[in-house]
Each structure stands twice: as structure tokens, then as C-alpha cells.
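Formate dehydrogenase: C-alpha cells wanted.
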Amino acid sequence: RQSVEGEWDLSKVGNQARELQNKTIGIFGFGRIGQLVAERLKPFNVTIQHYDPINQKDNENSKFVEFEELVKTSDAITIHAPLT
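Answer:
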């Protein structure tokens, strides 16, 4: 949307942008949305790991790790948990 509205200034954002390739992405909360995020990250050639207190199983897109390991070993963490 910012690009269409002419508000996207790559010179301001460019220095803060990061490549995803070859990074480890942690997903906190591996319900429906967390699993969809993992699926969409696959083409970026990243290692995907997740923590969820209920869903503690590996799947084809992600490996389950304990919370402490997720925080220590992830280059970026996405959070997909209810606010309540």
C-alpha cells in the first residue's frame, strides 16, 4: 500500500532491510496462522523452527524447539498468539 501511495522511500528503509535467505526464523505460536506463515516462508530458503505450548510436533515445514532455544537461535521471531 505504501508503494502505491508513493510513501515507500527505499533509501530510508534500505539500510534496515535484511535478507531472509539462509536465516533461522522462529515462529511463536504454531496454530493455523503460524503454520501458514511457515508454509509461505519455505521459498525463501530459511530454517524454520517453532514453539507452541500445545503443538509440540515437528511438521514438514518446521521443527519444534523449546522456547529458550527459539529465542537463542532465531535470527527473527514472528509471534502468532491470541492477545488474551
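The mean pLDDT is 89. The chain has one domain: 19-79.

Cheers.
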